[in-house]
Amino acid sequence: QEYLVESGGGSVQAGASLRLSCAASGRPWTNYAMAWFRQAPGKEREFVAGINWNGGKIDYTDAVKGRFTVSRDNAKNTVDLQMGALKPDDTAVYYCAARDSRANPWTIVTSIADYEYWGQGTRVTVSS
To answer: Which of 49, 50, 82, 113 is 20 to 30 A from 20 via CA?
Structure first.
């Protein structure tokens, strides 16, 4: 059974930092691209950041560029999202996702439908 488990969410003031972590288990994840999505109250789930199988290709949604950093450790099967200069608009449930990327290992995919595995999410609340 494959699992993605997020941790690190919480409630912070605007301008603060948080580090989210996603632990993957149940299968080899080396060939899997990983991504973070988020879903704010009343809104659709959206792509936040993605990282390819070896960390050589990374992309972010414009709203978080320069503030968030995604990284992965294939030895530990973890993917982290370092979030800085948080804003109230960053308030959302953050989800870790994975997709088999052997067909296109150097492409960051932003579509929800292309990701096969999902975590349960971790909530981030940013107050002004």
So the answer is: 113
Token duo for residue 50: 């993605």
Nearest to 24 by CA among 73, 77, 76: 77
Determine the average pLDDT of the residues in 31-46. Answer: 97
Which CA distances in Å does 94 have to 1, 28, 72, 105? 22, 23, 16, 24
Please name every residue paired with 76 in a beta bridge, in sequence order, or none if there are none. Answer: none
What tokens appear for 95 in the block?
């989800």
Neighbouring-strand partners of residue 97: 35, 118
What span, in angstroms and rounded, lies between the C-alpha atoms of 67 and 49? 11
Distance from C-alpha of 88 to C-alpha of 26, rounded to nearest angstrom: 35
Express each pLDDT in 61-73 by its tens digit: 999 999 999 999 9
Point out which residues pair with 68 in neighbouring strands: 83
Cα 105 to Cα 109: distance, rounded to the nearest angstrom:
10
The pair of structure tokens assigned to 10 is 């919480």
